[in-house]
Amino acid sequence: MESGPPANDLCSVCHGNFHIPCQANCSHWFCGNCIVLVWQHGSGVQPCKCPLCRRPITLLVPNDDSLRQRDDPEVAQILSKIHTYNRFFGGNPTGLLQRIQDLPFLLRRLLREFSDPRRSLPLVIRARVYVAMIISAIYVFSPIDIIPEGILGIVGLLDDLLIVLIFFLHVAALYRSVLYLRHGGS
């Protein structure tokens, strides 16, 4: 699985090739400097909005190649600004709609992290993901339900769907906290 922007894509701010690419929580890619300039051009006390989809950007994740180049002073300066941005906006609580919109971004990155042996998730986070998955699977496949399918038919599946949604939201929140600590948290 690729950890960088699509091969033939361009930054939507400068319309050039990506320089120090960063992925926003809406899954769009930008040059690190470009998205920081978008933020600095607007209100410095609010997260900037994605130039493509207009969703608030609450987390910027630099790609792995950029992180390996942090010895370069220019790269270090931009990564420092991204770190500051994430420190300001990455730890703020978000609403349910924002969390649901962030699910594809976070779950895709988490799956990539699980499948790549070079990446390391903290053991506690990995264990919590597995425990939540096992408990959710037990509930979904067990014959005991809050809303039984046998009596209410298709409506009885709602509690199972709710449990699955809660599982995904919980796992995404765990992984978001890992990304926040890596790229801006303290």
From TrEMBL:
Q: How does it sit in the membrane?
A: Multi-pass membrane protein
Annotated GO MF terms: ubiquitin protein ligase activity; zinc ion binding
Compartment(s) of residence? Endomembrane system
InterPro entries noted in UniProt: DUF1232 (IPR010652), RNF170 (IPR038896), Znf_RING (IPR001841), Znf_RING/FYVE/PHD (IPR013083), Znf_RING_CS (IPR017907)
Keyword Ion transport on entry: no
Q: What is its main location?
A: membrane
TM annotation in the entry? 127-144, 150-175
- Highest taxon of the lineage: Eukaryota
**Domain RING-type stretches:** 11-54
Q: Name one GO cellular component term.
A: endomembrane system
Q: Which UniProt keywords apply?
A: Membrane, Metal-binding, Transmembrane, Transmembrane helix, Zinc, Zinc-finger
Q: Which Pfam families match?
A: DUF1232
Q: What is this protein called?
A: E3 ubiquitin-protein ligase RNF170
